[in-house]
Design brief:
The protein is of the alpha/beta class and 318 residues long. The chain contains eleven helices and eleven strands.
């Protein structure tokens, strides 16, 4: 297959491009700058049609991952960039597909599990899950993230691509041993003795092992009956307290300093990020994926964490 990945220069894009390339597929990553890698790259600006659109014409699959990182302070300029980078890139990818003489069979469009409501009582699946934005006392930053997610999906849904199946990937955190990825960052805290319970520890963490993420993307490409919003996450999210306990035990760290909410706020300020990434309860499960027959290799955090830690150690020679 020929697979085009707009915005594929980040962690998730690299995980996918590396896997597709290793499997013998033709991979083209669209980015704002050329980077040396084993697959082809092409430049785009993420908002206007250009020569890059020729890569989409005749491709089998488009996987759009473009969007400014949410790991930042939510000031006015960063909010504008987070919103515009997602909406503009989605709109122009849709334009390229619409104008293609030989459009791709499937367009996998990035979205996020953050679109769902902050809740503890029950999981949010992709059939009955509650879209967030109306929770009592939800911080403004949480509501903004949901506004971004809904605008992102709206831009994809408004693109007229009658010959191309669309899937909106409501993905949880993809855990891989790659440097600077979410697992690497969390492991850094665990290794320093800072990987304790955050605030109450009741808030759920939704996640997916990188190998299951790759396999789920292949599954979505191959299964033509699947379209629209699809949750991509482990079927077993865990409360922060339990998640971090398993993380520490797997690594062999006996102690993790807990942090109160006010301490997290101070830490987030100095790290130029937001506490939403830590405090919002993301209890997300993949009903449509599992109902279609998909089976996870790493459905539970214990085995997933053990595998990721082992691969991390092998990669750094520790």
């Amino acid at each position: 297959m020929k697979i085009v990945i707009p915005g594929g220069t980040g962690q998730v894009g690299t995980v996918l491009a590396r896997a597709f390339h290793a499997d013998g597929h033709e991979v083209v990553v669209l980015g704002r700058s050329s980077e040396k890698c084993d697959w082809r790259t092409a430049k785009w600006d993420g908002k206007t049609l250009g020569d890059w659109a020729a890569e989409i014409d005749g491709a089998d699959v488009v996987i759009n991952l473009a969007g400014r990182s949410v790991n930042c302070r939510y000031n006015d300029e960063n909010r504008r960039q987070m919103m515009d980078s997602r909406v503009d890139s989605t709109r122009v990818v849709g334009e390229a597909i619409t104008k293609a003489t030989n459009p791709p069979k499937v367009w996998l469009q990035a979205s996020t599990a953050t679109i769902y409501a902050h809740r503890f009582d029950a999981p949010n699946d992709d059939v009955t899950g509650i879209i967030g934005g109306h929770e009592a006392d939800a911080p403004d930053t949480w509501n903004f993230s949901i506004d971004v997610a809904t605008a992102w999906e709206k831009a994809a849904n408004e693109s007229g691509t009658p010959k191309t199946r669309k899937v909106l990937m409501r993905s949880a955190m993809t855990m891989s041993p790659d440097r600077d990825g979410i697992f690497d960052v969390m492991l850094g805290l665990v290794r320093k003795g800072l990987g304790g319970t955050a605030a109450s520890g009741r808030q759920y963490i939704s996640w997916i092992h990188d190998q299951d993420f790759i396999r789920s993307i292949y599954w979505l490409i191959e299964h033509e009956e699947l379209s629209g919003p699809i949750n991509i996450s482990s079927p077993n999210p865990l409360p922060n307290r339990e998640f971090m306990r398993i993380f520490r035990e797997t690594w062999g760290t006996s102690f993790g300093l807990p942090a109160m909410e006010w301490q997290l706020a101070i830490g987030a300020f100095f790290m130029s990020t937001e506490t939403e990434l830590i405090l919002k309860s993301r209890r997300v499960v993949p009903k449509l994926l599992t109902d279609s027959g998909f089976e996870f290799e790493f459905p539970h955090w214990e085995n997933a964490c053990r595998d990721l830690a082992s691969r991390w150690r092998n990669a750094v020679g520790e």
